[in-house]
Amino acid sequence: MRHADRAVxxxxxxxxxxVNGVGDMGxxxxxxxxxxxxxxxxxxxxxxxxxxxxFVYAGIDKLTDPTFLADSGNGSIGxxxxxxxxxxxxxxxxDQSLKDPSAFGYAIAYGELAVGLxxxxxxxxxxxxxxxxxxxxxxxxxxxxxxEPYYYGNDLAYLMAxxxxxxxxxxYLSLDVAIAKRRRRQGSQIFM
Length: 192
Prior knowledge:
Elements: H1 35-41, H2 45-63, H3 77-84, H4 91-99, H5 101-121, H6 125-142, H7 154-168, H8 175-185
Helix pairs in contact: 2-5, 3-4, 5-6, 6-7
């Protein structure tokens, strides 16, 4: 007899009711048994909620701030890019953004919005998390690169926070799982 708290990750990849090969953790219908098994099962949910809400908020905040979306002026994306150009790790990326700062600002804002919504509802969650990681990586290499010491800059921490979601996706409470279950019932397989 196996202990439910030790069942996380045990068993075969094809365990009944399993998602991503985790197995059913000893419960009925794929539900975890015990406090530790339940905590392990839902461990990524707070991260998913935090990053999703934060990126949706950041996208909406940018889209509703005409000062940010301006090509120049105090508080604009253009002024920010000009200010960090010489201290960034990727000055050529800054140069690209300075060709049309307003369009670059809209691209960032809509990207953050899409990433946040994708992670929150769990639709194409690994792709959304990868997008969030790429946004965070580009912001770290451009805007926060000059931050000393490096751990004062939050973009690197966001990049690291996205990685578990890139690897695991949204294996529960997500549209990805609902779509996969529906396709399985219909006899077709999808890649998740």
